[in-house]
Write a structure and sequence with these properties.
Shape: globular
Structural class: alpha/beta
CATH topology of the largest domain: pyruvate-formate lyase- activating enzyme
Strand content: 5-15%
CATH class of the largest domain: Alpha Beta
CATH superfamily of the largest domain: tm_1862 like domain
Number of domains: 2
CATH architecture of the largest domain: Alpha-Beta Horseshoe
Distance between the termini: 60 Å
Helix content: 25-40%
């Protein structure tokens, strides 16, 4: 058998909050927001003697005439429909198709009919056997990976990835999370016992990215600061490494939980390491909903004040918010709007509560007979859910979510949150990143959408002059807002008239 493989990261079903599809849609260029770690890591696990190439469909078209004898496909729920299309096309062309990744691991029965080889779980411990069996022509139908020590995880093959194809690089620093949020599938896939790469591994990976001109890196970690001792050790190494850069220092972003706000010393270390942005799952101001979903780390604290503590430290927060919990009634939309617009957080990702397969929430919804929309989940609007709401109708839930999104992404409300962020954010130690052509292109296109949008762009330009230390954050704020506006237009959600009305199900 010809020993060659083509690894494909499929396109999403549609734009997402953390995507960069707006760049292509607005004629600026086709890029990924964050470089793909799955294909590059798998590529590094393939034995010598194999020819390996990579395609990230967010950046380039899939080559269905690729000469490789084996095609590897990865993906999560929002990529599943495209995974199936690609697998069907390549199998019709006589290729051996391997499918793995998060969706395959959590939903193996859905994926199995579409693959010659199904990989369930993590790949490090089974890669040698998989490729040995392929070479011998004696492969098995299913391979089950375990939860390996991450010291066995190699440096990803960034040499195979399109240089300059992503706005940010990516380094995985751990897998797993010790919390037990009812709706989270991460702990089902990667476990509650967090496993870490040691600081030397992380630094080696950063060196490779830095040598390729990357200056912004997402630290892929389901909860970067939850294990305090390990985090301090890594941050101290990052500070030392960054301070010794011959050119611009590296900028980092990651994911943390709200309990970071209780650790001033740890926040100071994050800022000193140049960690300038962090996603925080805030979810809801409704304490009953937080208790229901076992989001214990968000209980018994003033969430607004905890967020302010993080922002005051010098870290820009991206807030994750959800509606549709069992304790959410029709009043939740107004409560969410008032809560969100009172935060120093311009960037909000938002969605309806969803019950991913293999989660405790999915099992509970199944027991209660409240699972719906099985076929649409992951391939339709981001305002789809597979849960029948308890205290409102599905139509009311979607109408309220649509109203809420228009309220919080009204340019005036967004601008107010930007001002709030700047007012309380301390001076950053981050490198000053000059405005580049994509940013100018986005600013021009956004200004053309209306007077309020034009004023928002002017605000960002003025604040950039006043606070050049925050220029990297302003650049990301601009991209994020443009992406959200594109996303809302794409799904038919954007209607600025809704921002001027009070909520009603008929809206």
């Amino acid at each position: 058998m010809q020993r060659s493989i083509y690894l494909v990261n499929p396109a999403e079903a549609g734009p997402a909050f953390h995507g960069a599809e707006v760049l292509a849609a607005w004629g600026i260029g086709r890029m990924a927001n964050v470089a793909d770690l799955s294909t590059t890591t798998v590529a590094a696990l393939i034995p010598a003697g194999w020819s390996v190439s990579i395609c990230d469909e967010r950046i380039e078209q899939v080559n269905f005439d690729h000469p490789a004898s084996v095609v590897g496909i990865t993906g999560k729920v929002s990529q599943f429909a495209r995974m199936v299309e690609l697998a069907r096309e390549f199998r019709q062309r006589g290729k051996i198709v391997i499918i793995g990744g998060p969706y395959a691991s959590l939903n193996p029965d859905d994926v199995r009919p579409h693959a010659d080889l199904l990989v369930v779980g993590e790949f490090e411990e089974i890669a040698t056997k998989v490729f040995s069996d392929l070479s011998a022509g004696t492969w098995e139908d299913v391979y089950n990976g375990g939860r390996p020590d991450l010291k066995s995880s190699p440096i990803p093959r960034w040499d195979l990835y399109p240089k300059g194809g992503a706005l940010s690089g990516q380094v995985q620093t751990s897998r797993g999370c010790p919390f037990e949020c009812e709706f989270c599938d991460v702990i089902q896939y990667l476990g509650r016992k967090q496993r870490w790469k040691d600081p030397d591994q992380v630094i080696r990976e950063l060196e490779v990215l830095y040598s390729r001109g990357v200056r912004t890196v997402f630290l892929a970690d389901d909860n970067f600061t939850v294990m305090r001792r390990r985090t301090r050790e890594l941050l101290e190494r990052l500070i030392d490494w960054n301070d010794r850069r011959p050119g611009a220092r590296m900028l980092f972003s990651t994911q943390v939980s709200i309990d970071l706000a209780r650790e001033p010393e740890l926040m100071n270390l994050c800022v000193a390491a140049n960690l300038h942005t962090a996603f925080v799952g805030i979810e809801t101001p409704n304490e009953e909903s937080l208790a229901e979903t076992m989001k214990r780390q968000n209980l018994r604290v003033d969430l607004s004040e905890e967020v302010r503590k993080i922002v005051r430290s010098g870290i820009m927060v991206t807030g994750g918010m959800i509606v549709g919990f069992d304790h959410d009634g029709p009043d939740i939309f107004q409560r969410q709007v008032e809560f969100i617009n009172g935060l120093p957080v311009p960037l909000i990702t938002f969605g309806l509560l969803v019950a991913p397969p293999a989660t405790p929430l999915h099992a509970r919804m199944a027991r209660e007979g409240r699972l719906i929309n099985h076929d649409r989940l992951g391939s339709g609007s981001f305002l789809d859910t597979n849960i029948r709401p308890l205290r409102m109708s599905e139509a009311e839930l979607k109408a309220g979510a649509r109203w809420l999104l228009n309220r919080i992404y009204d340019p005036r409300a967004f601008a107010q949150r930007v001002r709030h962020f700047v007012e309380i954010s301390r001076t950053s130690v981050g490198a000053i990143d000059p405005i580049k052509p994509p940013d100018r292109g986005l600013a021009i296109r956004l200004s053309q959408l209306g007077t309020a949008e034009h004023h928002l762009v002017q605000l960002l330009v003025r604040l950039g002059d006043e606070r050049p230390d925050l220029l990297p954050q302003f650049k990301y704020i601009l991209l994020f807002y443009c992406q959200v506006r594109y996303l809302l237009d794409y799904y038919g959600v954007w209607d600025p008239k809704l921002a001027k009305r009070e909520f009603s199900a008929a809206a």
